[in-house]
C-alpha cells in the first residue's frame, strides 16, 4: 500500500518539476531515509517548486524560511515572550517546529543562524535559554543554495554539510523540456498529467521507512559499500593520483547515509535486496559534500564528482 502511494507521489512530482527525474527520485529517497537534503543549482530550476509539491503530497506542516544576512537564531527556533499579565515567560515556537522546512538560500545566513539549524538537524531538538524542546517526529530540512552568486553569502561549515543526507546538483533542462515548461506556465494541461494524489499520511510514511530498513543487504554488498568510504579516507592504499586529490575523506555518517539511501533506492524499484547499482546510484549525492579535495586538486580543476568516479573505478564491485 505504501509503495503505491509513493509511486503516485513520484508521478505527481515528475509532472510538477519537468525534466528533473533524478531530482524528484532523490527527494523521495531522502524522505524514506529520514534525512535532510541540500539542493544546489542556478536560479529558476524549480527547486522551491519541487519542495512545495512534495509538501502537498505528505500530510504535515510546511514552512518556508527565506535566509538573509540579518536573520537571527530566534527567527528559526522561537523565543521566550514575557507575559506581563502573569509575570512569566512563555515560549513561542519558531518555524523549526514544522514538519517540512524549506531553507531557501541557506548560505545567505550568518554562522550563528547556521549553528541553530545544526542542532535541529543533528539532535532533532532546539535549545532556548536553559531549556531544550523536541522537534516533531517527522522533521526534514530541504535547503537550497545558488552557486552563481557568492557576494553576501556564508559558506556552510563542514560540520553542517555532513548533517545533510545528500547534496544534489541540478543542471539546466533540454530544449524539449523547456517547451513543456512554457506550456505548463501558460496553464495548459500536459498530456498524461498526473492528478494531485491523496496526501501520504505520517503513519504510512513511517511504515514505509520500516520496510526500507528491512531490505536485505548481503555481506559482500555491505563490504563494497564500506570499501568505497575507506577509499576516500585512505586513498594512498588505492592510487597515488587519488591520494593527491583528497585532503579529507568521508565520515562514518556518510556510511550510514549511503546504506539508508541504497536501501530506499531498492525499495522504490520494488526489490527486497540491495545491489551494487543501488549504491552507485546514490554514491555521488551522498559523498559530494563530504569529501574535501586538496588545494592542488582544486587548482587543477578537479571536482568532487571526478574524485568519486575515480573511487568507483578503483574499488571492485561484487
UniProtKB/TrEMBL annotation:
Q: Which protein are we looking at?
A: AAA family ATPase
What does the UniProt keyword field contain?
ATP-binding, Nucleotide-binding
- What Pfam families does this protein map onto? AAA_3, AAA_lid_2
Instruction: Indicate the segments forming the ATPase AAA-3 domain, all copies.
Output: 36-166
Q: Which PANTHER family match?
A: MAGNESIUM-CHELATASE SUBUNIT CHLD, MOXR FAMILY PROTEIN
Q: Does the keyword Secreted apply?
A: no
For whether the record's keyword set contains ATP-binding, the answer is: yes
Task: Please list the GO terms describing molecular function.
Answer: ATP binding; ATP hydrolysis activity
Similarity annotation:
Belongs to the MoxR family.
Amino acid at each position: 500500500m505504501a509503495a503505491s502511494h509513493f509511486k503516485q507521489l513520484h508521478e505527481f512530482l515528475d509532472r510538477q518539476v519537468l525534466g528533473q527525474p533524478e531530482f524528484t527520485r532523490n527527494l523521495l529517497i531522502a524522505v524514506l531515509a529520514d534525512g535532510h537534503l541540500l539542493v544546489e543549482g542556478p536560479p529558476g530550476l524549480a527547486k522551491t517548486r519541487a519542495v512545495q509539491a512534495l509538501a502537498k503530497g505528505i500530510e504535515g506542516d510546511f514552512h518556508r524560511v527565506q535566509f538573509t544576512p540579518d536573520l537571527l537564531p530566534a527567527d528559526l527556533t522561537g523565543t521566550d515572550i514575557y507575559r506581563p499579565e502573569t509575570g512569566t515567560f512563555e515560549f513561542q515556537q519558531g518555524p523549526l517546529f514544522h514538519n517540512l522546512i524549506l531553507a531557501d538560500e541557506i548560505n545567505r545566513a550568518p554562522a550563528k543562524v547556521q549553528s541553530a539549524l545544526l542542532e535541529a538537524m543533528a539532535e532533532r531538538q532546539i535549545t532556548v535559554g536553559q531549556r531544550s524542546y523536541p522537534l516533531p517526529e517527522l522533521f526534514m530540512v530541504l535547503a537550497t543554495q545558488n552557486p552563481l552568486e557568492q557576494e553576501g553569502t556564508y559558506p556552510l561549515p563542514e560540520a553542517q554539510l555532513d548533517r545533510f543526507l545528500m547534496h544534489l546538483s541540478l543542471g539546466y533542462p533540454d530544449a524539449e523540456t523547456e517547451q513543456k515548461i512554457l506550456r505548463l506556465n501558460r496553464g495548459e494541461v500536459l498530456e498524461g498529467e498526473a492528478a494531485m494524489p491523496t496526501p501520504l499520511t505520517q503513519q504510512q510514511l513511517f511504515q514505509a521507512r520500516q520496510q526500507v530498513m528491512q531490505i536485505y543487504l548481503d555481506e559482500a554488498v555491505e563490504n563494497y559499500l564500506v570499501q568505497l568510504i575507506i577509499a576516500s579516507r585512505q586513498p594512498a592504499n588505492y592510487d597515488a593520483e587519488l591520494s593527491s586529490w583528497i585532503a579529507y575523506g568521508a565520515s562514518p555518517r556518510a556510511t550510514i547515509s549511503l546504506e539508508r539511501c541504497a536501501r530506499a533506492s531498492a525499495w522504490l524499484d520494488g526489490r527486497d535486496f540491495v545491489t551494487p547499482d543501488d549504491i552507485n546510484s546514490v554514491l555521488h549525492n551522498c559523498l559530494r559534500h563530504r569529501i574535501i579535495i586538496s588545494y592542488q586538486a582544486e587548482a587543477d580543476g578537479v571536482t568532487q564528482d571526478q574524485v568519486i568516479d575515480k573511487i568507483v573505478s578503483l574499488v571492485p564491485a561484487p
